[in-house]
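Retro notes (design track)

What went well: tokenization of the new backbones is finally stable.
What didn't: we kept losing track of which sequence belonged to which structure.
Fix going forward: every design gets posted as structure first, then sequence, in one message. First example under the new rule, 459 residues:
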């Protein structure tokens, strides 16, 4: 690789001179310099200095089959040699998106049999928004175009993705969101449940905020509700069991479409192919990306339910929407091989019956009791650890989010790559993790928590 001729310092200088990173304080990055990740194998990543890190985030919630899969490289190579690119516009197609669509229809819930491709989760949510509004217009109800979403939701970084999402900071920088999108409370009991309110009741109350938004706008004006089954970037917020059934009931009652964003939860993370199956949700659209290719190629797939698809096909005429790389043949070849690996190795089943329950057990038995930890929670291989100053009162360190960064920095220094979102430490590892990998992760996290506690006490 040509970059091997460069020292870390040289690469950092060039990076600082020319490369604007996503979601980054550029001045701060220029002061500290980027960590250069240069190699990865199985569950580990390695930086330019040879430091090994256990990757607790599967890249960015995506490398579900782990690193170093020759088969995926070979699938891409073979497809590139045969035909690197052709489009799916103008009545053309190529074989791999065709076959991937069939496969996805088989894996998805029964009411979903059509797929629209993009290259990223953000693009796919743009597609979903346009499709849902187009659907109601085709049904003769163009005024039914409002979308109900949630505060702290993350639906991507394009203009539509940012607008659908509920991150205040992102909205402030947008200078004008896509109109007619409202945000209601998130289903996050740890912080938002009232004194004495059970998880069950809190879940119903959080769902009622959706109903209230629908009634306020008038159901005849509301197109859809959009939500991540488990909020990911917002801090792995797992809703109470009462939440999703109630959301489903409300959507049906007011004839509001249900859009799921499974960009993180799709392809095995929660112990089923889709979290729709884990939570028993019947959705009209499911946005997926990331683990569809385990991140080896950029690809997203919007899974479109029969109700919308039938109208689009029968009454739609031309849908003026699509991307150069919709159904990219190389990305789709890699996705097909990736799904084959997940199936062959039984990774979804393993998360459901073995590693997922063990992960939950270890978080509870080994991490939850630590003095800095207010709560642990997980579904499948997706979890969070809440950092608090006082376990009993749930009081946080101030300023908000500062303590989790201390934990994260100690974790990374001790061989554990994990994220801090606000005061939540986040884990979303590759699905190839075994019980032994979970033990190793817990050892490293505990060490980081101890070191952070010492720092925070003396601060
Ligand atoms: N929906 C969800 C639920 C996501 O998590 C997107 C859409 C957008 O996907 P693309 O491929 O356009 O990035 C995402 C992406 C973080 C982080 O800090 C999370 C994401 C992306 C970048 C950072 O956890 N998720």
């Amino acid at each position: 690789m040509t970059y091997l001729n460069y020292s870390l310092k040289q690469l950092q200088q060039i990076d600082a001179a020319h490369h604007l990173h996503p979601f980054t304080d550029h001045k701060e990055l220029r002061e500290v310099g980027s960590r250069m990740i240069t190699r990865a194998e199985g569950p580990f990543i390695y930086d330019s200095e040879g430091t090994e890190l256990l990757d607790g985030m599967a890249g960015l919630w995506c490398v579900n089959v782990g690193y170093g899969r020759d088969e995926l490289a070979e699938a891409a190579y073979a497809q590139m040699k045969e035909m690197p690119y052709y489009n799916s516009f103008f009545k053309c197609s190529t074989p791999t998106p065709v076959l991937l669509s069939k496969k996805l229809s088989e894996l998805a819930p029964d009411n979903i049999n059509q797929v629209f491709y993009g290259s990223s989760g953000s693009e796919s949510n743009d597609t979903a928004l346009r499709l849902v509004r187009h659907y109601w217009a085709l049904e003769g109800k163009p005024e039914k175009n409002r979308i109900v979403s949630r505060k702290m939701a993350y639906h991507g970084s394009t203009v539509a993705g940012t607008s659908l999402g509920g991150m205040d900071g992102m909205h402030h920088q947008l200078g004008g969101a896509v109109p007619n999108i409202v945000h209601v409370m998130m289903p996050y009991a740890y912080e938002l449940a009232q004194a004495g309110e059970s998880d069950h009741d809190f879940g119903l109350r959080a769902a009622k905020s959706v109903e209230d938004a629908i009634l306020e706008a008038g159901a005849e004006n509301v197109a859809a509700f959009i939500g991540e089954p488990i909020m990911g970037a917002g801090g792995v917020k797992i809703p109470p069991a009462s939440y999703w059934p109630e959301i489903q009931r409300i959507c049906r009652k007011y004839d509001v479409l249900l859009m799921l964003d499974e960009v993180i939860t799709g392809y095995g993370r929660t112990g089923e192919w889709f979290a729709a199956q884990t939570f028993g949700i019947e959705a009209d659209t499911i946005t997926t990306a990331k683990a569809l290719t385990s991140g080896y190629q950029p690809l997203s797939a919007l899974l479109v339910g029969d109700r919308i698809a039938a109208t689009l096909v029968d009454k739609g005429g031309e849908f003026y929407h699509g991307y150069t790389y919709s159904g990219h043949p190389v990305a789709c070849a890699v996705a097909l091989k990736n799904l084959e690996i997940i199936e062959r190795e039984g990774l979804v089943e393993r998360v459901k019956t073995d590693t997922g329950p063990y992960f939950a057990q270890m978080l509870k038995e080994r991490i939850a009791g630590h003095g800095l930890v207010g709560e642990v929670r997980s579904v499948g291989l997706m979890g969070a650890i809440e950092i608090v100053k006082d376990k009993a009162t749930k009081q946080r360190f101030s300023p908000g989010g500062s303590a989790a960064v201390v934990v994260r920095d100690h974790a990374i220094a001790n061989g554990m790559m994990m994220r801090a979102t606000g005061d939540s430490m986040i884990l979303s590892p590759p699905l190839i993790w075994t019980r032994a990998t979970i033990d190793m992760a817990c050892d490293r996290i505990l060490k980081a928590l101890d070191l952070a506690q010492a720092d925070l006490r003396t601060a």
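Added context from the reviewer: The first strand starts at residue 37 and ends at 41.
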